[in-house]
Structure formats: C-alpha cells, structure tokens
Amino acid sequence: MTTQRVLITAGASGIGLGLARRFAERGDRVAICDADGDAVARVQSEHPEFIARQADVTNEAQMAAFFDRVETEWGGVDVVCANAGTGGPAGRIEDLEYDAWAACINVNLNGTFLTCRRAARMMRRQGSGLILLTTSTAGLFGYPLRSPYAAAKWGLVGLTKTLAMELGPVGVRVNAIAPGAVEGDRMERVLANESAASGRPVEDLRQQYVKGVSLRTWVNTDDLADMALFLSSSAASKISGQILAVDGHTETLVP
Could you tell me the sign of the dihedral formed by the alpha carbons of 139, 144, 146, 152, in that order? Predict the structure, then answer.
C-alpha cells in the first residue's frame, strides 16, 4: 500500500494517539496537534519522525499554522482525522451554565469545522483524500444529562453527510466513526461527572453502560484504529457519507 500522509487532531493522548501509532506502524507519515503542550512534547520525544505541534482546534490562527507546516513539508495530506473533542458538563439542561454549554459546542463542533475547512481546501485541490470525523454513539441516541455533548455529536453527523455531498464529486470521501464507551482516562472522567450530576455511584453507571451494549463490553482505541485504517485503505474506496459505529451495538444511553 502507498504511504499516506495522515493528520490527526487531539493526537497526543487517548483515541488520537492510538490512531497516530497505528498509522505509523502501517508505515504512514503522521502529523498530530494537541492543546496539551506537555503531551505534545512527550509524543515528539517518543516519535521524532512525527510532525507534532501544540494547537487548540478552536484557535483559528494556531490551526492555520499547523496546517501550513504540514502543507509546506508534505505538499498535501491524504487523511485528516478530525478527532478533537471534550465531554462537556453533565446535568439537566435547566441546571447548566451557558459558558459550559458553549465550551463543549466550541471544541466538538466549531473545532471540527476549522479542521474540516482547511482539509477540504487542500483535498479539493488534490482531487483526493479522506476526512474522518470522530463523533459518538451520543450522536445517534438521546443522552440524558449530557445535552451539549449530544447536540454537538449529532451536529457532526450532519456535517459528515453534508461534506460527503460537497466533496464527493471531486474524489474526496468523508466518513465518521461513532465510538461507544472507550476504555481510558477520559471515560473515567465522564463517569465521575455523571455520578456527581445524578447522585448514582460510579460503578452503577459503569454497569449501566455495559448493559446498554449488545456485546456487553466497552471498546478500546485499537478497535477504533482498526476501523480508521480500513476506511483509509483501497478496500473502502467506495465508502463515503457513512457513520460507522464501533461500539458493540449500543441499544440505549438512557439510565
């Protein structure tokens, strides 16, 4: 398979770092950005072959500088993983602060807009490429106590479908991966926030997530990377505009 040029946002930890490592193992060139400067430095130390830059996806100037560097060094990009996101606040909508709502929407939706806008410009000129968004099963179901997160992730579903229509005629594919509950620190923070908002013990919530999935299991970053690598391969050349859940089949997110 031809070596690909892969750009990943929020690529210094969690799902993004898992994607970066798997693309690199396949032999691809990898560029990552992340708002966490310390995490970026660690990744650069472990993977000096990566392009690694501190950049907040909601900062237009920082994202422009990151894409400029990638375009200057590589001349283009083949895969852009718009992966950055945040869990946002937990609570009934009447109890949420506007600033917390807006911050969640800003990272999950507006940050993805900035990433996809620049990716679309580059790929339209090339006449090829894959934009891969990270949405969530929260973008497929109602999600009590997590309205800003659900609203943002549903927005990404609409963005995926629309960009696939806009860019398909020039040979660019756009898809989204919808993870379920992913093992790791981020999900532990989500459980803690939901526990504080609902008054239910963390372990009860953990079991509720498991019971709401047909396979009765969470997923891990390798499960998501397997899907990303498939979608970026020639075997997926006719797959576009799709929301592909990697979640063990979520039946409900309602407690």
Answer: positive
